[in-house]
Amino acid sequence: MPVNSASAADELAKGQWNDAYRLDGHANLWGDPPVPYVVNAAKLFADHSAFVVLDLPCGDGRNLPPLAQAATVVLGGDTSLNAMGIARTVVAKAAADNVVFHETDVFATGLPDDSVDGIFCWDLLGHLTEPEKALQELHRVCRPGGHIVANMWTMGDCQVADPGMVAIGPKEYRDHADFYCKFYDRPDLDAYLAACGLSDEVSAVEQLRWMEPPHAGYRPYFHEHESLAFTLRKRSR
């Protein structure tokens, strides 16, 4: 089983994210509403009779209840034990008893080849300095005929104008919490997927805009996101 390793920057970010989920007086970091596009992903997985779906990173669990309705088993994967502790409360409240938590790294999930039917990977790849390795690992564990649904932020996303954002390169920033952020237009996304060797598995790309409520301690105001959501369907052998 091939194993990738994170860059030094991506490895450091794991601890930073775990600390970000140590909340003072708040139930969770991102708020209760799931991201709107998870409904599309859940329908896609259900329409293709997904048995096992992986939500990576699951964070504090806001996307797990919709996904739990789309598959027999949902793996909630994250490197943050703090996040998964909060997510357990979220799924218990939703009575989503088919969710199993799995401490895992997107660069080396520890899952067998071709072991999951669907993958939802939201708001992660843009934080990584080596996103090619991450997507290739997700592709490895996805079964032939299965789907990967993920996103990349665009320069129209609210984060670009956030207080404390510092440009460090073309479309690259460090945010106020010192997390790496990279933004993509459609040619950038096409180049990324080509670098991953997955251009011929793209089944959909959509540009999305949606509003989100404040995130306590991270982005404490209403804000509008913009992303390119993309779907891959793994080729059958």
Overall description:
The protein has six helices and ten strands; from the N terminus they run ααβαβαββαββββαββ. By secondary structure, the chain is an alpha/beta fold. The two termini are 18 Å apart. 39% of the residues are buried. A hairpin with a 2-residue loop joins β6 and β7. The radius of gyration is 17 Å and the shape is globular.
Give the SSE map.
Layout (H helix, E strand, L loop, with lengths): L7 H13 L17 H10 L4 E4 L8 H5 L4 E6 L2 H13 L5 E5 L12 E6 L9 H11 E12 L12 E4 L2 E3 L5 E3 L3 H10 L6 E11 L10 E11 L4
Parallel strand pairs: 1-2, 1-4, 2-3, 4-5
Antiparallel strand pairs: 5-10, 6-7, 7-8, 9-10
In short:
Strand 2, helix 4 and strand 3 (99-103) form a beta-alpha-beta unit. This protein has helices spanning 8-20, 38-47, 64-68, 81-93, 131-141, 186-195, and strands spanning 52-55, 73-78, 99-103, 116-121, 142-153, 166-169, 172-174, 180-182, 202-212, 223-233.
Question: What attributes does this structure have?
Answer:
single chain, 237 residues, alpha/beta, seven-stranded mixed beta sheet, three-stranded antiparallel beta sheet, 10 strands, 26% helix, 27% strand, globular
